[in-house]
Design brief:
303 residues, alpha/beta, two-stranded antiparallel sheet, 12 helices, globular
Length: 303
Amino acid sequence: MTAIKRAQIAPQGPELSELVQGYWRLGEWGMSPQERLTFIKKHLEFGITTVDHADIYGGYQCETLFGEALKLEPSLRDSMEIVSKCDIKLVSQSAPERKINHYDTGEAHILQSVDNSLYRLGVDSLDVLLIHRPDCLMDADEVAGAFEKLHTAGKVKHFGVSNFTPSQFNLLQSRLDKPLVTNQVEINPINFDVAHDGTLDLMQQLRVRPMVWSCLGGGEIFSSDSEQAVRLRATLTEIAEELGVTMEQVIYGFVIRHPSQPLPIVGSGKIERVESAVRAMSVELSREQWYRIWVASKGHGVP
């Protein structure tokens, strides 16, 4: 099996692995610290050196679980790139005063969130920090100020966003001296709106590679009885047979076929599923095969 390649994700961005291991469900995997360490070492062997976190994952617990494993072999930190996210405030036991989940891109919250993430992970810096969700009350100048302080302090090397529209991306970038290095967005055969709303056009224009969450549509493609899911399963099965791969691997092939060169995030804690995703990175869909999936998803032919 060919190891995952590495690539610079933006003209002034970091070098990441072209497949990313996501840890948002780490708390559900039921692993001991040693088992978590073994899992980390295994995906590093595959060449998956980039890991994706967020402060809120697992009710603010997943970064701690990852940090516990990393503490068993601290030298592994030098073999990986850590991405984390902030700005979502959840109602939780640690914040009983909150009445609703909401967003906060204020400077104080960003700075505190990063300090919390570094403490939980047990590391000195993040390779990339993303603003997790667009905040209607985002003051771009204030975010830029927070980013500058974090970079100057050596706590964060690069910055990006997640789920931002092109205008939101451009607004924040207009206030920054250091370019944003990615936009983490949803792409899968059920939902690929970003291929039509200008999001991926902007990424391609800037030569910034997006990161992709929910490549498998949260399992809906495999389990839903909706007309869309039924159409997709039939088409994906046909294409899988044509290529001699699995339906899951065809889906990853659909994601990476876009010319913006997305970096898929694998969310599974089963190493065999991760290995399957590694193999999927060599799947090459023809244009017609890609559009057959488009048609199956939309329920109509191209205009």
